[in-house]
Design brief:
Layout lengths: L11 H4 L5 H11 L2 E7 L5 E7 L1 E2 L4 E5 L1 H9 L2 E6 L6 E11 L9 E14 L9 E3 L2
Antiparallel strand pairs: 1-2, 1-5, 3-4, 4-7, 5-6, 6-7, 7-8
Length: 136
């Protein structure tokens, strides 16, 4: 059941509910492994990069460069976002990231993301379908 306000929009409670990793995994085959990764700099500005995402036993796994590593250490809240060519929805996942290792030979750090919330958000320019579909 989808909870909606009097205006017909999803309520904040509905959009903010917890999401299980399995809810996200169910959509990754459709969206692929390449995601945009949004972190927050120490001066509170957004930093956007890309990452290849794999599914771990209990979290999402990715590798990041030294700048993104620094930002995750300072503020572990991250957002991952996937878009498909000609897709109706964008997959957006919020989580908490942990750097789990020193940099590898490639200079990248292994990171795990504990999924907290996820939605399918209708892409700009589309008017059909729900604007926001919470996963979970």
């Amino acid at each position: 059941m989808t909870l909606r306000s009097a205006s017909g929009r999803l309520t904040l409670r509905e959009v903010s509910r917890a999401t299980e990793l399995a809810d996200v995994v169910a959509h990754l085959a459709e969206f692929g492994t390449l995601a945009m990764l949004v972190t927050v700099t120490p001066d509170s500005t957004p930093h956007v990069s890309t990452a290849r995402v794999a599914v771990g036993a209990a979290d999402l796994e990715l590798r990041v460069g030294p700048t993104t590593h620094e930002y995750i250490e300072a503020n572990p809240s991250v957002t991952l976002s996937w878009m498909r060519d000609a897709g109706e929805y964008q997959l957006i996942v919020d989580g908490v990231a942990v750097v789990v290792d020193e940099p590898g030979d490639d200079g990248l750090y292994a990171v795990r993301v504990d999924v907290r919330r996820a939605i399918l958000h209708r892409v700009a320019g589309r008017t059909d379908g729900d604007r926001c579909v919470p996963l979970g």
